[in-house]
Design brief:
Elements lengths: L3 E3 L25 E3 L6
Antiparallel strand pairs: 1-2
């Protein structure tokens, strides 16, 4: 089983934008999950 987490707000190797931290607006980035088992 492979669990994949995707966010259009984050890029591999980049730093997390300040708006998504407690030093910024402290909001969660948009995320999508793939590969979860049914009824998880």
């Amino acid at each position: 089983m492979n669990l994949t987490l995707f966010s259009s707000a984050l890029r591999n190797g980049d730093e997390i934008l300040k708006r998504y931290t407690c030093q910024g607006v402290d909001v969660s980035p948009p995320v999508e999950w793939y590969g979860m088992l049914t009824n998880t």
